[in-house]
Design brief:
- The protein is mainly α.
- It has five helices and two strands, in the order H-H-H-H-E-E-H.
- The protein has helices spanning 6-15, 20-27, 31-39, 45-57, 95-100, and strands at 60-63, 72-75.
- It has a two-stranded antiparallel ribbon.
- A hairpin with an 8-residue loop joins strand 1 and strand 2 (72-75).
- The chain is flat.
- The N and C termini lie far apart (39 Å).
């Protein structure tokens, strides 16, 4: 797996139609860590790999630079249905949302 630039992970998350809270609830990586990853701050590489792998498992294909073009992001979920951004059926409520109730 080629590691993508961290700000590209934010694009992938948004392309899946997921909030940071959604990703936290499914992956167990804290929202604060997700924010730091998306900003490009220093975090443990394991967390970056976990988030990238989760997005890839959800249908995101990261297209590496070629020629004079930069990184690309393809969402395989939209092939059959352009309105279907992800294949997650039920996203559990995040810890933060439960704490607020």
């Amino acid at each position: 797996m080629q590691t993508v630039p961290r700000p590209i992970l934010k694009i992938a998350r948004e392309f899946l139609g997921l909030s940071q809270d959604d990703v936290e609830a499914v992956t167990g990586v804290s929202r604060k860590t997700i924010q730091r990853i998306e900003r490009g701050d220093d975090v443990i590489v394991h967390y970056v790999a976990s988030i990238q792998r989760f997005y890839e498992d959800q249908g995101i294909e990261f297209v590496p630079p070629a020629g004079d073009r930069g990184w690309g992001v393809f969402n395989a979920n939209t092939k059959a249905d352009p309105a279907k951004l992800n294949s997650l059926e039920n996203i559990p409520p995040s810890k933060r949302k439960r704490a607020e109730n």
